[in-house]
Structures are given as C-alpha cells and as structure tokens.
Amino acid sequence: MIHPHFDSTNPQKSAPIGIFDSGVGGLSVYRHLAELMPKERYVYYADTQNLPYGNKSGDEILFLTLQAVDWLCRQGCKLIVIACNSASAYSLTTLRTRCRIPIVGLVPAVKPACEMSQTRQIALLATQATLQGQLLAQVIHEVATSKGVTVHKHFEPMLVPWVESGMPIDHHVADLLIKQTQAWYQQGVDVIVLGCTHYPFFRQFLQDWIDEQQISMTLLDSGAAIAQRVKSLLECFGISADGEVLDEPLKFYASSLAGDVPATARRLSQVPISFVDSDFLPIDV
Asked: How far apart are CA 22 and CA 25, in angstroms?
C-alpha cells in the first residue's frame, strides 16, 4: 500500500498536486492544470533516467511508475496525475488499488474523436506502448469498433526527440508528420488524436498546415479534459486550494538532469521552474 504523507502543519487543501511523466511531455498537461486551477501548488516528477517508456515492457513501466508515485506521495501530494499515456496504460488499475489518494490517468481522446467524426475515420498518433496496451484496446472496442468507426493507429519514434529539440520546421520529422497527415486525409480521416503528452506541443504547427491547406481535420488531446477531471475530484473531496492565486515556481524533480533536460523543461513549460533533488531540496541548474 502506498500511503500519503501529509504534514500536520500543512493542511490537506494546500497540499500539492503531483504530476508524473517519463519525461517533460507531461508539462503540456501541467499547463492545462495551472490555467484552470491557478491557486494550486504542483510538484512534477520526470523519470528522465529511464525514458522513453514507449518501448518498455508493461511490467517495467508498472515498476517505474510505482516508484515515482511513491516519491510523490512522500512529498505530501493530495492527488496525482499520471501525465503519461504509456504509464497510464499499464499502471492505473494497480495504482488505484494501492494508493489512498485520487489517481488520474491519461487515455487518448478516442471517445470524443469518435463522437466528433463525420467520416467515421479517425487517426491515433501515440507511442508503441500505448498502442499495444490493453486499456486502449478496450476503449477502441467499446467506443469505435462497436460503432463502426475505424481507428488508424500510428507510431513515429522520432516525434518526441523532435519536440524536445525545439521542433525545427526544416527538420525531416516535420516533413514526416505532414506526409502522414496528408495520407490520413486521403483515407478520409477527419479527426486526429494526439495520444502522447509531447504531441500537443506541435499542435499549433500541424494546425497551421491544416489551415493553409484548407482541409477539414480536427486535432484532439486529453489535456483540458484531464484538468477538468482533477478539478471535479478536488471539489468532490473538499480539498481544493483556498486563498490567492499562487505566484511560485513549479517544483520539478528529474531522475536525471543530464543533457538539455532543464532547458527543455523551461522552454516547454514557459513558467518559472525550481529544480529539486530526490530529498526535495533546491538545486541550481
């Protein structure tokens, strides 16, 4: 059993919300959370030492996710968001039986995509682990296949590195993304689901191309829906933060700060970040 660690001097309402991802992609979810709930405090855990999760086995993903959630619980988090589709696919059931605080996970936005599609053809762009997970297979069967909607699944391993490198538009990955979108359009796809938390960062790039081509395609991700779910859970349990809008940096822990992790996190989050070590002590990077 993973237990919460609330400090008696820190009332539950002011306890932070934990966010976990294998890397910095979950910052796209954080931005939705912070926009909707600016009075809340947030602690972000990035397991950068073990990324990417998308090509790991389900057992390995579960083990790493349990470690991360245990660390977030020890920081006194009142709710934890698994801001990683791959980790959600293999850990949600176990986490919800072991944790005594609310756990919110990510599932690609297949259901709203199916409801929105006029052509009954949708595309799902996600990691290999997400696409192979039983959770997604169940969702697709219930909301797509059984209703006659075709889901075109696709994995492009270079998308995450491209996002983290700043998404240069003259890069060959940008060309790959455009070509794949063109192929989907020719197949009748009218909704594209961005099924990895890194992908919303290139949403504007892709939307600009769609607008230039004057074609009818909609891009969907789960960020806004996850933020609404967190808000409703906090209200349901009576643990929403009181007081003024907070003006403090995001607390960010990474299992490895090698390479460009700090710079990438700052660029993608577009907010002040305070990096901390495994003991939650500030570090200067």
From this structure: 8
